[in-house]
Every structure is written in C-alpha cells, then in structure tokens.
C-alpha cells in the first residue's frame, strides 16, 4: 500500500540535515537498547533492528533517488542484513511516498508544454505506484489504458552527493566492509545515472521486448515514444499481481514451477543469448 503522505524535492542542505537527524534517531535507538539490556540480559536485537529499519526507511523515502536505491539493493542481499531491514527496504521497489501532484504537472509542462489532462483523455492524479526514482500514474488515451512513469525532480543532480553521505552510514550501520560498500556504491551510481535517462530506458525496453517476443508465457507492454521523453515514460498498462502478493496467495507448486521456469528462461535468454540485461516490466501468465 502507498502511504497517504506526499513529498516534494528537498535541497542538498535539507538532504544532509535529514541524514544527520536519522543518524541521531538510530543512535537514540541504540541507547535505549543498551539501557534495557542492563536490566534484561536476554534481550535480543530484533526490536532494535525493527526500530532502526523503520527510522532509516522513513528518511530514505523522503530523500528518494540514490539514497532509497541503496536500500532497495541491500534488501536483495538476503545474507547481508537482518530480516527487519530486508523486509522494510524491499518496499523501496514499489511503495515509497508519492510526489505531490503539482510537481507532476510541472514536469509535464516542462517537456510537453501541457498539463497531463491535456495530453491524455484521463489522467489519475494519485500515483498507483511509487519507488526510488519515479512513480506511476494511470492514464487513458483513445480507449487504451496506459502506465505513465514520471521521474522525481532533481534525482540525477543529487546522486553523487547522496552517495557520499550514504557510504559511511551503510558501512557503520550494517557492518559492511569498505570493499563491499564501494562495490555497491559504485554500481548504484553507474546504474542510477542510466536509470535517470528514460529515453535510454525506452530504447532498451523496446529492444528487449522485441527480442524476447517469441518466449512463451511472457507478455510485454507496448511503449509509446511520442508520449515519452527523458523524464517521462509511457507504456501500455499491464494488469497483474505483484510477485510478493502472488506468493501470499499460496499458489500450487505446479504454478510456482511454471512461473519460476518462465522467469529463469527470460533472464537466462537476456544474459546468455542477448548478452545484456534490462529489468523491464513484464507479465508472466500462470
């Protein structure tokens, strides 16, 4: 579920202040934990991890961009972080606080000189999904339901400064070695710079979807270059269920095997045949 709050871009000074305040909250959580530990030696760190994960994620959700992307990447490393961090940071993939609507309008006017309602027959003011560097709105045009992905303002400009601030926090908080954190930060920076170019994403998504069109049980959206630009990406809407929600429905092992094999075939084909990898949006038919 998306949080009801909305967010607006904040300056570099405000971003630095947010990191400092978050560090203070985390420090306070440790003090409370060690104070309780004195009277209860059997106390585990589970509560501490949950409080820290909540405070850190709340801060990164406001910052968005590269800071939130680090959390998203760390959540995928199952052996690196305690479960509380993995579960909370995984929300960065689809459940960050959305951008305020006036800034969505501002982005459209900057690139199309029109408000969203002037471009589409219908445009939902409320974001359907919000992640680390952009959010998605539903739209209708000529009877087709579309997904409109809009990048948060200032994401590209804040990447380098954000990662400089994230590096020591991540290394200290999660006991990650210097070599490991440099590997993550370096990969995040290079990939984020690519991800902030929606024109490049459009081109690569079209190439991958065409090259993989022959694969069974995989549905790709059609992309719309005339409605897209470097900060806005438009594609057909794909109806489906998020993978995590699908698993909670407890599908049969036969269906699980089918989905797993399809995903394996899709990603293996990209890596071993196409010699490239692009995490594009797909719907797997069960």
Largest sheet: number of strands, sense, barrel closure: 5 strands, antiparallel
Q: Would you tell me the structural class of the helices and strands?
A: alpha+beta
Distinct helical segment count: 11
Number of strands: 7
C-alpha end-to-end distance: 24 Å
The topology string of helices and strands comes to HHHHHHEEEEHHHEEHHE
Beta-strand content bin = 5-15%
Shape annotation: globular
Level of helix content? 55-70%
Report Rg: 20 Å
Report low-confidence residues grouped into runs of 5 or more. Answer: 1-5
**Chain-averaged pLDDT:** 80
Topology:
Blueprint: H1 12-39, H2 46-63, H3 65-75, H4 83-89, H5 101-112, H6 116-119, E1 122-123, E2 129-130, E3 134-141, E4 144-151, H7 155-173, H8 178-195, H9 198-211, E5 218-219, E6 232-236, H10 243-248, H11 253-274, E7 283-284
Antiparallel strand pairs: 1-3, 2-3, 3-4, 4-6, 5-7
Helix pairs in contact: 1-2, 1-7, 2-3, 2-4, 3-4, 3-7, 3-8, 7-8
What report would you give on this structure?
The chain has 286 residues and is α+β, with helices and mostly antiparallel strands. 56% of the residues lie in helices and 10% in strands. It contains 11 helices and 7 strands. A hairpin with a 2-residue loop joins β3 and β4. α3 packs across α4. The two termini are 24 Å apart. The N terminus is likely disordered.
């Amino acid at each position: 579920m998306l949080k009801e709050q909305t967010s607006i871009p904040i300056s570099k000074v405000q971003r630095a202040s947010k990191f400092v305040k978050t560090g203070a909250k985390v420090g306070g959580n440790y003090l409370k934990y060690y104070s309780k530990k004195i009277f209860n030696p059997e106390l585990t760190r589970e509560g501490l991890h949950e409080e820290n994960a909540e405070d850190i994620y709340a801060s990164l959700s406001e910052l968005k961009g590269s800071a939130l992307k680090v959390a998203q990447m760390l959540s995928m490393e199952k052996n690196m972080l305690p479960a509380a961090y993995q579960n909370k940071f995984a929300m960065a993939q689809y459940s960050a606080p959305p951008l305020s609507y006036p800034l969505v309008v501002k982005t459209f006017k900057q690139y199309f000189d029109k408000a969203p309602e002037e471009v589409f027959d219908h445009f939902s003011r409320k974001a359907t999904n919000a992640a680390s560097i952009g959010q998605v709105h539903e739209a209708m045009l000529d009877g087709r339901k579309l997904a409109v992905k809009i990048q948060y303002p200032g994401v590209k400009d804040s990447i380098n400064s954000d990662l400089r601030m994230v590096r020591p926090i991540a290394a200290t908080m999660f006991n990650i070695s210097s070599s490991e954190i440099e590997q993550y930060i370096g990969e995040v920076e290079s990939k984020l710079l690519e991800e902030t170019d929606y024109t490049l994403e459009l081109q690569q998504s079209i190439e991958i979807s065409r090259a993989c069109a022959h694969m069974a049980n995989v549905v790709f959206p059609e992309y719309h270059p005339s409605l897209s630009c470097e900060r806005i990406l438009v594609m057909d809407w794909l109806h489906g269920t998020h993978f995590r929600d699908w698993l909670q429905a407890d599908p049969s092992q036969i269906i699980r095997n089918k989905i797993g094999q399809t995903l394996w075939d899709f990603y293996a084909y990209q890596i071993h045949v196409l010699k490239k990898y692009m995490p594009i949006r797909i719907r797997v038919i069960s």
